[in-house]
Each structure stands twice: as structure tokens, then as C-alpha cells.
Amino acid sequence: MPKKEHTIALNEMESEAALALGYEAMKNLRWTIQFAGPDKILGKSRKKWNTYGEQIIIVVSNGQLTISSEMVNGESYDILGNNKKNIASFVKAFELAKSKTALTTIGQNKVAIDTLRAATINAAALEEQQALEVNKAMNLSGSNLNVTYTIIGINVLVFILMVLGGAGIFEPNGYVHVAWGSNYSPLTLSGDWWRLITNIFLHFGIIHLAMNMYCLFMVGIFLEPMLGKAKYLTAYLCTGVLASLTSLWWHTETVNSAGASGAIFGLYGLFLALLTTSLIPKVVRDVQLKSIGIFVAYNLIYGMKSGVDNSAHVGGLVSGFVIGYLFGYGIKKERAGQKATWMMPAVVLFTLGMSYAYITKNKVSETERQSIVNAIAGASFKDSEKFNNDLISFDTLHQQARSFFADSSLTDEQLKSKIDTVALPAWKHAESLLTASKTYDISPKNHEKATILLEYIELSRKELDLLKQMIAEGTNSSLQLELDQTKAKADSVFEKAVSL
After folding, report:
1. Within 165-201, where are the H helices?
2. Which residues touch 265 (CB under 8 Å, ≥6 apart)?
3. Residue 95 and residue 321: Cα distance in Å, rounded?
4. 147 with 237: CB under 8 angstroms?
5. How far is CA 462 from CA 239, 391, 395, 411, 492, in A?
6. How far is it, in rounded angstroms, from Cα 218 to Cα 262?
7. How far is residue 275's CA from residue 226's CA, in Å, rounded to a whole number?
8. What is the pTM of this model?
9. CA dihedral defined by 414, 415, 418, 423, rounded to 10 degrees?
10. What is the DSSP string of 249-281?
């Protein structure tokens, strides 16, 4: 961060006297004097409209006084030259203090500095004691974050593999997510119960992933050391599953959800519960309660926007809060030397029981499941959308080719003209569309549909040729029978194509 220093020669001035004059200069500048050591004073310059104040340090050593001004509020550049201005102001104030400060004032400043030194030592001791209490309660220095890093690693690895599989870095592909195990309600409720777990390791785009992993890391710093790896992992997985169940319960329509946010909200809910107990020292509790409360409130409000599965957030938060109190009770027992080995099995069994009960009660039929599986299988091919657009075009051409058959007012010549100028060109265009689809990357069933529709086009052309022959030669029983048979066969072939 931007910093400036300046050295003033003391010319054999006593060190304590120099510090006392520096103290006087800081007072006259109305700077805040915060701490003092054996040979230094630390303070802060005045807060102004264009600055939050700079850190000021005066050090007396080897017959000289060094004054430094440093920007410590995250600034990258000292555009307005505040550090330079602070040093210039101090040098001027120090020279003025040398010439005008009475000996009695210097003596009083020395006493004030000694008092400040004692207060600094006490503050450091208190801070060290608080740090020891926090570490004892939360085990921050006695544990690593291996589980948190492993979860992050799995999420990142899965995301990379999904991108390679066509999921999209920024724009998600829902079909790829379903294939990888997203919480797609018709499949989850018809046998794929494992989607309740796998979906918490999938993400819809790199922004979704980055935000979730950042939030996981920030809460993992505190929770993994405090809970221990087994409880921490249990909480992550169980709140994630309960969040997924909440999403299924809340959405009456089909939902395809994924993301670690339900499990992460579960961890934040668990942390909130612990912060309301005496397990965590007050010095941490007060700060974290405020910051986590703001984080949770903001994300729940933000989650009200379209496309965000807020129900999973709420489900994770509430389940985490309950598990947090349960774990908090168990931790108190363990610290009192009593066993509480039942806690994790109880949480796991409850989660499994809720999952089984909900899936059993809301089970989707095998017929509906198979229909969805077939649709997904068809849509997962690269040219599926292109083929579907061709089918839409085919429907338009089909209607165009048969649009005039119901018009009984047409004369034979008019009907023949319509066949030559409207129907046959429409069938030719439709044939070219379906012939081109032979090279498409589509499902075998769609290839079969295209083949059957080509057969239907051929029969429809034969039907038109027979109709033109009857117009030219006159109606006879033999031609009429062949026309009726051809039309019946064409209708049967078309019904077969529609049923696929």
C-alpha cells in the first residue's frame, strides 16, 4: 500500500524528549494517538472527505526520528498525495514544538507516553488471551481445511468435466446437467434418489461455481476446525440433501436444480446456531453474527429473483440451524468428558428417513419416467434441435400439400393444377429436408421417424399420381381401389411415424 517516510536528525536530542515532541506535534495536528512502544508511537491522521486517515508511525533510533505515513484502507494509489502532505505537516509541527514546547509539557507528554505504553502492553496481552480463548473454543490453529479443499476440488473437477461434455462455461445446458445427476424432479422421484446428493456438486456456469466455492471456503475456515472433519462433512451432505428435498416439495411443477448453495446455506445456518450459544467466545460471536446475518439476508433477498432456487436455500438454512443446535449440545457434552457418538448417526438416519418417506409418497410412475427418459435421450444429441425444426417445417409442408383436398368446388383441371404447383413441390421440399437428416447427429428413434416419413411422402406422391391418372382417363374401379389402398397405407405409415 502507498507509503512515505522522512527522517529528521535529532542532533543529540534525548530519545524520550524527541518522542515527547513528536507526541506534541501529533496532538497539535489533532491526529489520533493509539499505541506506544519503547521507541515508537503509532497513530492515525485525521479523517477527511477524501481520505479515511493514514497510519502514522514515529520511530526514534540512532539519533534520528523517522516519520512514516501509510494508506491502510485498501488504496492502491496515493493520487492526492496525502502521505506527502502528512509528512510535511508533521515536520512543520515538530519544528514548531521544538521551539515553543515548555519543559513541563515535555514532562507531561513523557508520562502520557509511559501510560500509553502500559495500555498497549495490556491491550496486547488481552488480545493474546482472547486469541487463546478463541483457539481453544474453535481449534482454529489445530486443524487444516482438507475436507473443505476436497469438496471445492470435487466441484471444480466436475465442472471442468461437464464443460468438456458440453455443459457450457457461462450458459448451462440442462440436458448435460440431468445426465450428470441434477435434481430433476421426475427422475429423482422415480428411482434416481442419488440425485439428491449428486446435484450439490454440479453448477450452472462458472459464476455460480465461483460464488459458491468462495462462500464455502469462508464458512469452512471456522466450521471445519471447530466441528471436526466427520461432523463437518456430515453437515454438508445432510443439509444438501434436505435442501434438495425442500426444492422438490416447494416446486409443484417440474424442476431441474443443482448447486452447492443449499448445502452451503446449511453450513451457514449451522454456524448461526452455534453463534447463539456460549460455545464461541463473545469477541468472535458478535462480529460473526452480524456479518453472517447480513450475508444470509442478502442472499435470500437476492434469491427471490427468477432462476434462483430459493427454496433450497431456505431448506438448507433451516436444517443447518437445527443440526447446529444438535451438534452444539453434543460438543458441550464432549467437552465435559461425556460421549455423544449418537449425534452423527441420528442426523444421517433422519436425513435418510425424510428422503425415503418423501420419495415414496410422491413417486412418479414408470410410464411418465420412460417418456421423460426418451425425450432426454433424444434431446441430448447435437442436431436434435435442428431436426425438431425440420419436423416443424415438415408439418407446414404437409398441411400445404393436403390443404385443397377438402375443397369440393375445384374442377378437375383446377385440382390437377393444384397437385402440380402446390402439392408435389411441397412434398419435394419435405423429402429434401428429411433426406438431409440422414447425416444428422440425432437419436436412432429420430432417424427411424425420418425414414418412415420419407416412406409416407413416397406413398403420398403415388396417391397424387393415381389421382391425376383418374382425372386424365376417367374414374374406374381398378384405379379407385388402388387409390384407396395407397391412401390407407399412407395413413397407417403416418400414424406409425407420429407414435415414435
Report:
1. 174-180, 185-188, 195-198
2. 239, 243, 296, 299, 312, 313, 314, 316, 317, 320
3. 61
4. no
5. 65, 22, 19, 21, 15
6. 15
7. 12
8. 0.60
9. 180
10. HH-SS--EE--THHHHHHHHHHHHHHHTSTTS-
Show the cell assigned to 71: 494508506
The confidence score (pLDDT) of residue 165 equals 80
Single out the catalytic residue among 89, 313, 384, 460.
Answer: 313
Distance of CA 255 to the CA centre of its chain: 17
Structure confidence at residue 131 (pLDDT) = 59
Looking at the predicted structure, is the pLDDT value of residue 124 above 70? yes
Indicate which residue of 45, 247, 261, 460 is catalytic.
261
C-alpha cell at 91: 515536520
Report the C-alpha gap between 38 and 20 in whole angstroms: 12
The Cα-based distances of 219 to 97, 226, 263, 271 in angstroms read 51, 11, 11, 8
∠ CA 108-112-113, nearest 5°, is: 115
Instruction: Please measure the distance between the N-terminal and C-terminal CA atoms of the chain and give it in whole angstroms.
Output: 68
pLDDT at 431: 92
- Is the CB of residue 4 less than 8 Å from the CB of residue 87? yes
Q: Which pLDDT tens digit goes with each residue over 391-449?
A: 889 899 899 888 877 777 888 888 888 888 888 999 999 999 999 988 988 888 888 89
Q: Which of 236, 229, 180, 175 is nearest to 381 (CA)?
A: 175
- Phi, psi torsion values for 364, nearest 5 degrees: -90, 140
Query: In which residue are the cell numbers 441430448 written?
Result: 380
Active site annotation includes 177 = no
Active site residue 251: no
Three-state SS across 193-237?
Answer: CCHHHHHHHCCCCHHHHHHHHHHHHHHHHHHHHHHCHHHHHHHHH
DSSP code of residue 307: T
Lay out the sheet containing 32-36: strands in order across.
Answer: 3-9, 64-70, 55-61, 40-44, 32-36
Q: Which three cell numbers mark 106?
A: 515535555
Contacts of residue 497, defined as CB under 8 A and 6 or more positions apart, other chains included, come to 449, 452, 453, 456
What one-character DSSP code corresponds to residue 60? E
For residues 177 and 9, the model is more confident at 9
CA atoms within 13 A on the CB side of 213: 20
264 closest CA partner among 319, 344, 198, 225: 319
- pLDDT band at residue 130 under the 50/70/90 scheme: low
